What does this fold into?
Amino acid sequence: MPNADTTRPSRLASIWLGIKQTLGLACVLVLFALIGLICVDVVARYVFNRPVAGAYELTELMLATLIFLALPLTTQAREHIEVELLEGVRNRAFRSFSALAATAATALVFVTIAYQIWHHALRLQRYGQVTDSLEIPLYLIGFLGAASCLLSALVLFVPRRTPSSQDRQRD
It folds into this structure.
């Protein structure tokens, strides 16, 4: 009988699972809202000749929101485009080192982008920058983008769970 400590996920893994589920649900909700908005706008525009006011702005904001919400999920799943320049190297230690260096470099890029977006969002907030017709504050998307990039940098170091033999037997 396995020890309870080996079957229970770590605290970090449990926290990430909650964040992952929340982000996934948020992505689904934003995507359905985007689909609904576009459908209503198309019908209103071509059937009733009355498009939804601000639909273009809302579409832009929802697309940006969707991308930023999905970024940490994509990062943790390691589903970004990768170029393996050293594929032919057979030395296991070198491959491990290069994978760690690539992860650290990616995290550094995400942190740098988060820092830049955060400061840009602060400027947008200070100047009161809003969208043209609906006057939605743009800094909100900036703060979401900065948080998303920072979370993406952090999840690079969350170990991915590999299916155990018990999980495979249950399936």
Summary: The mean pLDDT is 86. Residues 10-80+92-158 form one domain. The first helix runs from residue 4 to 7. The chain has six helices and no strands.
